[in-house]
Amino acid sequence: MSGALPGLVLAYLPSPDRGVWHLGPIPIRAYALCIILGIVVAVTWGEKRFVARGGEPGTVLDVAVFAVPFGLVGGRLYHLATDWRTYFGPGGDPIRALMIWEGGLGIWGAIALGAVGAWIGCRRRGVPLPFFADAVAPGILVAQAVGRLGNYFNQELYGGPTTAPWGLEIYERVDPATGLQDSLNGVAVGDPIAIVQPTFLYELIWNLIVAGLIVVADRRLRLGHGRVFALYVAGYTFGRFFIELLRTDPATRVFGDIRINVVVSAVVFVAAVVYFVLARGRGPREVPPTPATDPDAGDEPGEGDAATTDPDEKVPGTAGDRSS
Questions:
Q1: Separation in Å, CA 169 to CA 124, 161, 172
Q2: Residue 91 or residue 272, greater confidence
Q3: H-run or E-run covering 188
Q4: Residue 312: closest CA among 179, 240, 251, 223
Q5: pLDDT at residue 290, as a whole number
Q6: H-helix or E-strand containing 182?
Q7: Residues sharing a CB contact under 8 Å with residue 197, sequence separation 6 or more, in sequence order
Q8: Cα 215 from Cα 312, distance rounded (Å)
Q9: Contact at 8 Å (CB) between 103 and 156?
């Protein structure tokens, strides 16, 4: 394989030699660790922002108990719906549909069903869902960025061949015990077999940029009523639209030969922008309910600001997945 790619330069980004380590019989998967770390980041930063905006401490963690499992299930269902041939088509293995630890979380399903879980949690705590969503939005973006590192370890979600110095080296991986090819659980061997666009890295960087932008916008404009979350969705989908066009991994195609996530990104972007504009008429940022106030107090437009504390004061700077 030494002659597979002549003229390699040191500037290319190397891929990890594996994505799984073993402690005895226990597999430690980088993908799973990245998802867990992302959840921790989202909950921790979301809690700080929520309290700074006037919310009751501990609420974000309580809501996350519902939102996280709902989001994981939703992400998996979206992935299965848009990549069903891998599991249920000719030669597919339906049992693998349950193996979430192998990767495969669609952000659209995670956000949609995660919002249902968050709504349940918010109802139990008497917190308006838009108020909660505005607090956690930047943290969700950073969590998505951390999750993309899992794709790096899995050698997945990359684009076409490139000669750019930041191109990503892709290696063949084999099972050391059998010598058979195993791209998910194997160990890299030989020289790189391809140099490709690191689209996972593009999305990671874009997520961090958008997280920083919405924090600044929220600080200056004192956004409320779900407008921070709408700005997150609009910013993310704008970048995802173009990044998705660079990807070459198998995907469901619609309207001829368009990747389904390109279409979804465009539709969701328009919906988020429309909501952001229309929600402006709901008035200043909500006052969050407290144990001494009516649970629905934060829903009425025209109320005063929630808190005098900047929601991002003293918060550390902002830094899915064989994800869809």
A1: 48, 10, 10
A2: 272
A3: strand 187-196
A4: 223
A5: 59
A6: none
A7: 158, 159, 160, 161, 162, 164, 167, 168, 246
A8: 7
A9: yes
What span, in angstroms and rounded, lies between the C-alpha atoms of 151 and 149? 5
Sign of CA pseudo-dihedral 20, 21, 24, 26: negative
Q: What is the pTM of this model?
A: 0.81
Please, is 222 exposed, middle or buried when counting C-beta atoms within 10 Å of its C-beta (0-12, 13-18, 19+)?
middle
Which ranges of 181-280 would DSSP assign to H, the alpha helix? 199-221, 227-246, 260-278
Domains of the chain by residue range = 29-168+197-299
Q: Which residue has the tokens 């891998």?
A: 86
pLDDT at 219 (0 to 100): 94
Q: Rounded CA gap, 217 and 245, in Å?
A: 28
Q: Report the run of H or E that residue 35 belongs to, with start and end.
A: helix 30-52
At residue 320, the 3 state secondary structure works out as coil
Interior angle at CA 294, CA 291 and CA 298, nearest 5: 100
pLDDT tens profile 167-184: 999 999 999 888 899 888
